[in-house]
Specification:
Strand content: 15-25%
Order of helices and strands: EHEEEEHEE
Distance between the termini: 50 Å
Structural class: mainly beta
Strand order of the largest sheet: 3-2-5-6-7-1-4
Number of helices: 2
Mean pLDDT: 74
Low-confidence stretches: 1-16, 32-37
Helix content: under 10%
Largest sheet: 7 strands, mixed
Number of strands: 7
Shape: elongated
Length: 179
């Protein structure tokens, strides 16, 4: 499914003990239509999969789930996966259109994951779409354990490479033999 630059927040039933909604949105190359930048086309906005990762103290991944669409992910903080995990100093990373990740919860760090996932080979757009990465918050950490039930956390994702489009034309009458 392709996504847009507008934020669409569908309504979900957030009943439960500490359910938080994670959603990602694509950040356009430019918020203005200028001649030195190009807006993303549909293939560049395509999201085939998103990996949501929550990192806790010690920069260790404490939660990972891959979804196959742009739909938000509901995370229940009372889930057994978070038992005994300090959620006071966390950050969340979303990776779109990346390869399958090999993660050992509580052990794998962002440095290891970035070496697995953030590789761009060539400049062609794969059928899965452009690889994108986002982080919440952009810098530092936040208290994920202190988020209220029903909180919606939106992670802006940026493409891992940019596009420059230009048009070159030469008037045939301006070309002289030998030049």
């Amino acid at each position: 499914a392709a996504c847009t630059t507008e934020l669409i927040e569908p309504s979900y039933n957030l009943d439960g003990n500490g359910v938080v909604q994670l959603s990602s949105r694509v950040v356009p190359f430019s918020d203005r239509d200028v001649t030195t930048r190009a807006n993303k086309n549909e293939a560049e906005n395509k999201i085939s999969s998103i990996d949501y990762l929550i990192f806790g103290s010690g920069d260790k991944c404490v939660f990972h789930q891959r979804v196959s669409s742009i739909d938000p992910l509901l995370v229940d903080k009372s889930s057994p996966v978070f038992e005994g995990v300090d959620l006071a100093n966390c950050y969340i990373v979303s990776i779109a259109n990346g390869p399958e990740l090999n993660i050992e919860l509580g052990e794998t760090t962002w440095d290891i994951i970035s070496s697995q996932s953030i590789e761009v080979s060539g400049v062609s757009i794969t059928s899965a779409g452009l690889p994108m990465v986002g982080r919440y918050p952009e810098t530092g950490t936040f208290n994920f354990g202190g988020t209220n039930q029903g909180t919606v956390l939106t992670i802006p994702m940026k493409s891992l490479f940019a596009k420059i489009a230009f048009k070159l034309s030469v008037d045939a009458e301006e070309i002289r033999p030998g030049e």
